[in-house]
Amino acid sequence: MSEASLGEFRVMWLSGKSASMEPARLLVSNGVVHVFAHRAGALGNAPDAMPTPSLLASAPVPALTISERLGNVPYRISFPDGSVAVADDHRSVENALHLPTAQGWLPKLEANPIAVAVAIFGLIAMMGFLYTKFIPAFAEFAAHRVPRSAERKLGEYALQGMDRFVFNTSYLSETQREPHIASFKKLAKAAGLEDEVNLQFRHMAPNALALPGGTVILTDGLVQVMKGEERLVAAVLAHELGHIHHRHSLRQIIEGSASALLVSVVAGDVSGMSGLVTTAPIVLSSLAYTRAGERESDQYAFSLLRKTGYSPNDFGDAMQRFDIMDRCLRLREKDRDDAKDAGKPYKDWPNPMQNDESDTAPTSTPEGATRRNNKPSMRGAICYTDPDSYIKGREAEIAALIGDEKPQTGYLHTHPVTQERIEAARAAAKQSS
Amino acid sequence: MAAQAGREANPELNLMTLAPSATGNETVYRFKFTGSAGEYFRIWIVNTLLTILTLGLWSPWAKIRKKKWFLGHTWVAGANFDYHASAWPIFRGRVLAAIAFFLYWIAGEFQPKYAAWVALALAIVAPILIVGSLRFNLVNTSYRNVRFSSQSTLMLALAAIAPFILGAALAVAFPLVTNAGPEESPFRSVGWTAALSPLVFTIFYPYVHGKVRLLALNHSKFGSALIRCTTRVKTFYSAHIRGSVIGMGMMLAAGVVTFAAGMMLAALGASMMNLFTRYIGREAMVVIAVITTLPFAFAFLIWYAATQTRLINSTFNLTRVGENVRVFSEIRTLPMAKLYLINTIAILFTLGLALPWAAVRTARQRVETTALAITGDLDRVVAENIKGYDATADAATDFFSLDISL
């Protein structure tokens, strides 16, 4: 130690009293550090070219604070009087002051190629784990610990907004509603949710929604597509109860916030890129979480249907109805395009979402307060009321439209493809029989 | 000398990119960034992984290490910068900020009716956060072993943010949602009063942007030297309007390009179009949709870069440090837009692993388009006693994404 204790390297000396700087040489001898001014021209001149060197600072080595190695950023050697010597020759500093090549565990990790390689794989694996396992599990854990009453306001608010801007009052009569109300009650009881949920009817295209807080919305369109068949509607309601049982709306809020937080941890301090970089992972992951939720609700529906005397096959049949409706809509789009090509006037184009002139006008009037000017635009749309007869005998055309490739669930889908859901239902039915 | 007279006589000249030119006894020093992407990648990956493994607890240490690295590689006139914040105060600040942010999140997500009230509360707190964060960051930054400091006051910050407080108050006063009776929908029909709040936000955005930026540039000190920026708020209006005009022009051009492509397809015959939609399939249509939005994305990038570069140049070119230092800035729109475009593509295609590379490129462009012209030397700048500031406000600005960066 003692024989190797002489070390010398050039530094930039900063007094800490003013913004002046002084090229200097730092000498280590016998455990004491001296900084001498180095005024003779440019840095790197031989020390003997110096005029009488003046001492700028000196201190014993233990009194110094030496900055931790940080990439190639120069070392900063701080003296007790507040002055700093900046040294960019890392090797000399480490030799002269007997520092390990990178002192501290953090610089060691950063300098070690193996550690960096492990970190790359570790980060990728960790992000994969967080997105696919941890965030959904955490969201589920947290969601079940939030009382339903906290969600209720959110659901009420959403319903009020949709009533104002989207829904119309349902056209279904009491007798048309009754069987669905009865089956909903039966399902809710079997699910142990009878105090949490309620069913409401609205007029809109075929759909069913589970709102936060336990309200299930059934649309006229859906009842039409299912031809009012009680067991098919019940299968869809069982699926919606699955969303409520698993607290999916709350989980989606938590999952969305968690993935946004994760993106900001990794990319938050980087500017100089498009917002696309931060939104893409959030959107893609939330779509994946939504699809997982749909599959979970499907599975829930299968077991609930079995428990209540229905069968998973009912769910498969309901999905089948959706599939037929989809085919009908595709065909009608084609018919519209053909009419366009044939140069027919706009009023003669078959609109996939609207009823034809020949279709019957609504027979019943909506009850209760209507919140919007009711335009029964979707009522009687042929693909909702009678898709079977519309597509009858035109299978070849549909096959040409859809192609013979089996549809696959993709990254941009909100739901698994219908075909996949039907197969899952048939498999579940086979299992239980 | 003529250029000098022009610059001082005609403030409009300072809006442009200004090549640094020495006059009298001045010497020009260009800023230089010496860090490399490979070097930063190691620091970034290790600290990011540690942050994630510790569920965010490591983030104050990671933040300091990254900041120290960027400032340590920023050189001008023979010396580099340094960052001095210590981790535990930031840690404490972040814990407090996280609790506040959690309450804010709960209120915003679960009580949507009160979202406007929450926004108003944030606007009222914003001046405290902005001043606190400025003080903290400047005091912890040094150049040549002399610290910066901030003289901004709460009143100045309040004056800067006031229009946003007004905007948020208008949103509370004229809500889209009311407390209607059970039979009545609480959603109002949208009337003209609903436009008041967005209108105030839009009209005053350049004012707030300018005032907040000037809060940093015009009320700071480097040791004993006052930093002064004489850019007027008016300039922020002209820069934002100019940017919007350029951006809308580009959007229009993008629209024309897309429309022309559509017309060319249409010229091939309407049936051709149908063939297209029918047989290519829906997935391919998504790809086509993405391609047609690219011209718009590029137009938006130009819009952003045109505004940003003009604002950076027009503020830095009118900034002086003490008596003898003038700042020059010559960042240009197209290089900035190009950099952002390439960064975005690289990050997307490497699933984020290019993030540190992008950060280094961005820093290099920002740093190396700046220069100082110094008369004599900086010996006259004397270090002053500075007191430390609490890190909570700075941590809060990180959480609430208040951007006050220079």
Structural account:
The complex is a heterodimer of chains A (433) and B (406). Mean pLDDT of chain A is 83; it is low at 1-5, 40-44 and 356-379. Chain A has 433 residues and is α+β, with helices and mostly antiparallel strands. Chain A has helices at residues 90-96, 105-111, 113-143, 148-165, 174-191, 220-225, 230-245, 248-267, 276-307, 312-341, 382-385, 387-391, 395-402, 418-432, and strands at 7-14, 21-29, 32-37, 55-60, 65-66, 75-78, 84-87, 168-169, 198-203, 208-210, 215-219. In chain A, the strands form two sheets. Chain A has a seven-stranded antiparallel β-sheet with strand order 4-3-2-1-7-6-5. A four-stranded mixed β-sheet of chain A has the order 8-9-11-10, sandwiched between helices. Chain B has 406 residues and is of the alpha+beta class. Residues 1-6 of chain B have low confidence and may be disordered. An eleven-stranded antiparallel β-sheet of chain B has the order 1-11-10-9-8-7-6-5-4-3-2. Chain B is globular and about 70 Å long. Classes of the chains: A alpha+beta (433), B alpha+beta (406). The interface between A and B is large, with 70 and 82 residues.
Q: H/E element string of chain A?
A: EEEEEEEHHHHEHEEEHHHHHHHHH
Q: State the distance separating the first and last CA atoms of chain B.
A: 30 Å
Summing up helix and strand content along with how strands pair, one would put the structural category of chain A as: alpha+beta
Helix content range of the residues of chain B, please? 55-70%
Most strands sheet of chain B: 11 strands, antiparallel
* Apparent shape of chain A: elongated
**Number of helical runs of chain A?**
14
What's the shape of chain B? globular
> What oligomeric state best describes the polypeptide chains here?
heterodimer
Radius of gyration of chain A, whole Å: 36 Å
Q: What number is the mean pLDDT of chain B?
A: 83
Number of strands of chain B: 11
